[in-house]
Every structure is written in structure tokens, then in C-alpha cells.
Write a structure and sequence with these properties.
- Two copies of one chain form a homodimer.
- The first copy, chain A, folds into two domains: about 25-85, Winged helix-like DNA-binding domain superfamily/Winged helix DNA-binding domain (Arc Repressor Mutant, subunit A, Orthogonal Bundle), CATH 1.10.10; about 90-255, Four Helix Bundle (Hemerythrin (Met), subunit A), CATH 1.20.120.
- Chain A contains ten helices and three strands.
- Chain A has about 270 residues and is an all-alpha fold.
- In chain A, helix 4 packs across helix 6 and helix 5 (about 120-135) runs antiparallel to helix 6 (about 145-160).
- Chain A has helices at about 25-35, 50-55, 60-75, 90-115, 120-135, 145-160, 165-175, 195-215, 220-230, 230-240; strands spanning about 45, 75-80, 85.
- Chain A has a three-stranded antiparallel sheet.
- Chain A is globular and about 55 Å long.
- At the A-B interface, helix 3, helix 4 and helix 7 of A face helix 3, helix 4 and helix 7 of B.
- The structure holds a DNA duplex (30 and 30 nucleotides).
- Chains A, B: Keywords: DNA-binding, Transcription, Transcription regulation.
- Chains A, B: GO terms for molecular function: DNA binding; DNA-binding transcription factor activity.
- Chains A, B: This is Transcriptional regulator, GntR family.
DNA sequence: ACGGTGATTTTTGTCGACAATTTTTCAAAG
DNA sequence: CTTTGAAAAATTGTCGACAAAAATCACCGT
């Protein structure tokens, strides 16, 4: 009856006809994000809306929205003339991102301490710590890194929740999404190296000390510990930027850091 | 020759045919922002894309982008079913926003101190302080509040620049755009009240102390001062939420705070 | 009268089209 | 061979159209 120009917008792209309720925006977001993080698009490259739209099998509109989202997350950069390019980070940018996350986590911890976080929440955090201990195991061989990552992420979120501030929580989510500032950014590649286990043990001690400070309502101590805790990531950053550069491929966004030469010698 | 469906998309709206190079997105952004801040849309109201598009004389596309932007800025809230509504803030949200800004400004100051901000930049900041002194005048009657606002904003940006960190600077811009967290959020209404001048004198003292701390490379002091400085805004917030509620109309986003009853008795 | 149910109207997400720029290409001149 | 300039191609911002979903409303049964 009616003209019906676009009956089936998802016709190609083999096997996805099933669930995929109704959001091609998510497809665009994940597709673009993956292409950036896995190096499909080199840093500085201009992102063509039409090309991506065709490759992902969606229209330009959701691609454009995905690009806006990734600009907010710091993966893309708006060009003055219009359009976006893959962001190019310096080591200093990543360092500042980590320091920023540490500072805001420090704020969350201070608020939790000063305002009196509910005991139930603190206990919940301690529960996660217990599970992290279990994931660590007793020897390095027994360590379940994937589970550690998941639990670590959970713990950081849970502590953010102790602040009782939705504003701070939201902001932490934001900075955690920045290229390599997230609390679990460098864990993927850590499974292979000797200093790893010791590093994780130190991190666990930080976790416990932070909770202790919150329970004792020692706000300044909690904040300082959070900043120091975040700085653990700096060591890993410099490792993967220096001697460990060969294995840097495992770290999601590291190809965005200027001076890295990772793309080749693959496959 | 060609069909040309939309020859002149900006035909109505009287006098704007001049500059307005090419961005109806800006029109949508400013129009929506104004309607929210001046109370044209009450908190909790759903924002209709079509209605706004028609009222502003643009298509739905730029309106939609403007809505995304304002969600990022914290003025709107996404509804789970789709679309946006005007955000409803609690006093606690605003307090946390102010604390967040203070903390990040504190980070900027600490970095500036620890990493050694260039003397030229510090001198530039001091220059702004001198101009603020001039704008303050000697008696309350001579105070030029508009100029004070402008210079205050400038000073905060300039100090953020001292950190030397684009990441921190960008984040400060972001949280400064949050509903009432900006450094000059409450200055508009301050012109009328007695405690005002003293408050501004204290603020100036903070400014000077912060610069002094940065120059002496006393990072912790600089950070603590920045947090304390931001908290000056708390007094004004409570004033306009309490006894001064009659005059709250002058404060841009205060109609978003739940429990405020300002919209009526106007005009 | 009231609560549930089905129809109608509004609203959103997505699409392709088009004009104004911006970028690239290519050729001629210095 | 480099530089300059103009033509051509590509890209972006914006628009109206449509289908699926949500919200609103009328109706009916108990």
C-alpha cells in the first residue's frame, strides 16, 4: 500500500537476526569502539560517517550519535572543520587521567568517611575483598585474572556507592571510561609478568586500608589512600610503554598513545 | 531545476539573517537551555522533540543533538522508555556538584604547585586579581558585579590552565557547566544583599592565597584552599533556598531544585 | 462506579536525500 | 620540481518521511 522505502535495514551482516531488540545505535557504538581500541583505525585518522555506516549496516544517524558518545568518552576528538578523528594521547594525558580518577575516588572515599557510610555497605565491600582473595589464590599459577578484573571493577563501584552521592558516582563512571584511566585498564596484560602478583597484593592492602579508614571516619586518610592506589596503574603504564612494549597489544586503548608502535608484527 | 524542498530553513524568526553562519544546532542548544533555566519547562516535564523543533524553527535532528548535550551537562535526564525530561535536583545534588568542582580545582592547583607552574602564568592570574580589585571598588555602591563575574570566570579558567593538564582543564569545564556548580553560579543574585561585599573580599583572599601556595609549590595547601573556596558557594545556595527564596528567580538553574517554588508571582 | 482492555494518537528511533563546505585531485605556471 | 589555482569528489549538517513503540483515551464488563 505505502511506498515502504526501507523494509529491512538489517538485511546483511550474517547472523544477528535474533534478539537484537531494536537499537542500531548500540551496534554503531560497539562497532566503532572496537575498531578504535583494536587499532582498526589508527590515531589521527578521520572517521568517515558514510564508510562506517555502510560497514556496520546502519544509517548515518546512529553512527553520528555513537561518535558524539565516544567524543565524550575521550576516544574521539572533534575536528574544527567538522567530523571527528581518532584521538591521539600523550603519556601525560594518560597520567593525568589516572590522577583525575584517583582524586575523584578520593573524594568519594572522603565523603563516605565523613558522612558515615552505612555499615551494611562497608560489609558488602569487604565481601568482595574476600572473593578477590579467593581469586588470587595462594600461588601465581592459581590466580584467576579474569575473575580478579571483574571483582576489582565491582569493588571500585561499590566503594563509589559508599559516598552516597549519585553525582560523584556518575562522574566516576565517566572518568573510568576514559581511554586508560579505568581501574582495570592494565589488568588484561598483567597475567604474564613476574611483578604482577606482588602488585595485586599491594592493591588488596590498599583496598583494606581504604575500607578501614572509611569505617573509622578518617576522611583525609581514605582520600590519600585512594590517590595512591590509583597511582599503581602508573607503574603498569610505564612498563607497557617501555620494556613491555612487545606485549602492549593486550592493553585495550594503548594504540592511542603517541609514540607507541604496536600495530605491526601482528597476526 | 532541482526539486529543492527546503530552500530557506530559517525564514521566520524575524531578525537573524545576518551572521548566524551555519548552525541551527546552536540555536536549538541555546533555546532549550534557556527554556529550562528560566523555568519555561518545569522540572520533570518531558521534552517533546517535535514541539521544540517547531518552536525554534529547526528540524528535529539538531534538537535531538542539543538534548544529548544537555543530558551530558546534567540539565536533562534520559527516560528509560526513550526521550528526555527536565532533571530534578535535590539540594544534596547541588552540594555534591560544588564539592566535586572544588576537588577538581584542588587537583588543578596541586598539580600546578607540584609540577611548577610557569611564572608567566601566575603573573597573568595576578593581573586578573588586580582587575577584580578594581571592579570591587572601595564601597559596595561602586562594585561592578557583571565585570566581577566575568573576571572571576576568567581567573578560574586561568588557574586551571596553570595545571598544564588539558585533561583536568577539560573536566573542569564540564563540571563547571553542571546546573549550579559553576564558579559564578550565584553571583547574579548577589548584588542585592548585605553580606555580599564581605563574601567577595573573602573570595579574593582565597584567590591570592591559592596563587601564593602555587608559587611556593605547596600543593596540599593549594588544594585545600581550592576546596574551601568552592564551599563559599554553599552559603549562597542555602541563602537562596531559605530566607532569600523570594529573590531566587535571579539564579539560573535554581528552579531545578526540588522544593523550590519560584515559578509563580513573576512578571 | 471502577478496573481492565482494545483502539487511537503522539513520540521516538532510524532512514535516505540534498546543499553547503571542506578536502582532494589535477593541471598549468613559475 | 614546487607552488598556485581551479575543478571535482567526498563529507558534513540538516531536513522531512516513515514504522515501531509508547502514551492516551474510549469503551466495555463485572
Amino acid at each position: 500500500m505505502y511506498t515502504n522505502i526501507h523494509t529491512e535495514p538489517l538485511q546483511e551482516s550474517s547472523a544477528l537476526a535474533e534478539a537484537e531488540k531494536k537499537i542500531s545505535f548500540q551496534r554503531a557504538l560497539m562497532g566503532l569502539r572496537e575498531r578504535i581500541l583494536t587499532g582498526g583505525l589508527a590515531m589521527g585518522d578521520r572517521v568517515s560517517e558514510v564508510a562506517l555506516a555502510r560497514e556496520l549496516g546502519v544509517s548515518r544517524t546512529p553512527v553520528r550519535e555513537a561518535m558524539s558518545e565516544l567524543v565524550e568518552q575521550g576516544l574521539l576528538e572533534r575536528m574544527p572543520t567538522g567530523g571527528c578523528m581518532v584521538r591521539s594521547l600523550t603519556r601525560a594525558d594518560v597520567v593525568d587521567g589516572i590522577e583525575l580518577r584517583g582524586t575523584i575516588e578520593g573524594l568519594a572515599c572522603r565523603l563516605a568517611a565523613e558522612r558515615g557510610a552505612p555499615e551494611a555497605g562497608i560489609v558488602a565491600c569487604e565481601g568482595i575483598l574476600g572473593r578477590i582473595d579467593a581469586a588470587l589464590g595462594v600461588s601465581e599459577q592459581e590466580t584467576d585474572f579474569e575473575r580478579y578484573m571483574e571483582l576489582n571493577e565491582q569493588f571500585h563501584q561499590c566503594v563509589a556507592g559508599l559516598s552516597g552521592s549519585g553525582v560523584v558516582q556518575k562522574e566516576l563512571e565517566r572518568v573510568g571510561a576514559m581511554p586508560m584511566a579505568g581501574p582495570s585498564a592494565f589488568l588484561q596484560g598483567q597475567a604474564l609478568f613476574p611483578h604482577t602478583l606482588r602488585s595485586l597484593v599491594v592493591a588488596q592492602d590498599h583496598h583494606r586500608s581504604i575500607l578501614d579508614a572509611i569505617r573509622r571516619r578518617e576522611g583525609a586518610r581514605a582520600a590519600a589512600l585512594a590517590v595512591e592506589h590509583a597511582r599503581l596503574a602508573l607503574r603498569n603504564l610505564d612498563f607497557f610503554l617501555g620494556e613491555g612494549a612487545r606485549h602492549a597489544r593486550r592493553i585495550p586503548g594503548i594504540s592511542l598513545v603517541a609514540g607507541t608502535t604496536v600495530q605491526e608484527n601482528d597476526l
